[in-house]
């Protein structure tokens, strides 16, 4: 599945993206993410892409001119409960604070609510990641709370996780705000 926006495309992340992934990535992008390449080499990134678990739908965010912008994923798909999570998101340092995150999340939220029939989409982040929390609030997501001592990070740090969500009844208003923010033509 490929999701097309005005300035970027979300296409299935695969080994053909490894070199551009490596060129765009900065290790700091994974400071708060549990799952990351163990080696920041072409082989390490290739191995990381190949090890993405079944059930996680990972996307490469690529600009219209082919530049690799970052990555995000759908996972924790709860079909019976019509819920899904968006995460494992990182954005190239050069594109942080630009159109990339809101357009990427707009495309994913739209797909979740309008194509998959989700009634709940959740996102979460490390409690230390204030930049990510601010971005989620700016998207219009609702803060739900903190899961204390939720994850033991690879470096042994015991992470608190901050939860955000959107539900289907909120989507029309959220969608309208994102369309306006992104400057999409109606």
Could you characterize what this model shows?
It is a single chain. The chain has one domain (3-182): Gcn5-related N-acetyltransferase (GNAT) (Aminopeptidase). It has five helices and eight strands. It has helices at 18-24, 42-50, 100-115, 130-139, 171-182; strands at 3-4, 8-12, 57-63, 68-78, 83-91, 120-126, 142-152, 158-167. An eight-stranded mixed β-sheet has the order 1-2-3-4-5-6-8-7, sandwiched between helices. A hairpin with a 4-residue loop joins strand 3 and strand 4 (68-78). The chain is globular.
Percentage of β-strand residues = 25-35%
The total strand number stands at 8
Helix content: 25-40%
SSE run: EEHHEEEHEHEEH
Overall shape: globular
CATH-defined superfamily: Gcn5-related N-acetyltransferase (GNAT)
Distance between the termini: 24 Å
Specify the biggest β-sheet. 8 strands, mixed
Summarize the structure.
By secondary structure, the chain is an alpha+beta fold. Helices cover 29% and strands 33% of the residues.
Question: Which properties best describe this structure?
Answer:
alpha+beta; 33% strand; eight-stranded mixed beta sheet; globular; Aminopeptidase; 186 residues; 5 helices
What's the layout of helices and strands?
Elements: E1 3-4, E2 8-12, H1 18-24, H2 42-50, E3 57-63, E4 68-78, E5 83-91, H3 100-115, E6 120-126, H4 130-139, E7 142-152, E8 158-167, H5 171-182
């Amino acid at each position: 599945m490929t999701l097309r926006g005005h300035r970027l495309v979300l296409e299935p992340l695969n080994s053909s993206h490894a070199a551009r992934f490596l060129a765009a990535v900065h290790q700091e992008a994974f400071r708060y993410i549990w799952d990351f390449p163990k080696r920041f080499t072409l082989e390490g990134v290739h191995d990381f892409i190949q090890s993405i678990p079944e059930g996680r739908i990972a996307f490469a965010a690529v600009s219209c001119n082919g530049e690799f912008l970052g990555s995000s994923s759908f996972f924790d798909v709860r079909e019976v409960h019509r819920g899904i999570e968006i995460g494992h998101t990182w954005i190239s340092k050069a594109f942080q604070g630009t159109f990339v995150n809101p357009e990427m999340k707009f495309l994913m939220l739209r797909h979740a609510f309008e194509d998959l029939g989700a009634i709940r989409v959740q996102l979460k982040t490390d409690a230390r990641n204030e930049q990510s929390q601010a971005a989620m609030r700016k998207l219009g997501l609702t803060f739900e709370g903190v899961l204390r001592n939720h994850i033991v990070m690879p470096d042994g740090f015991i992470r608190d996780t901050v939860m955000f969500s959107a539900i289907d009844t909120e989507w029309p208003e959220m969608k309208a705000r994102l369309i306006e923010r992104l400057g999409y033509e109606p």
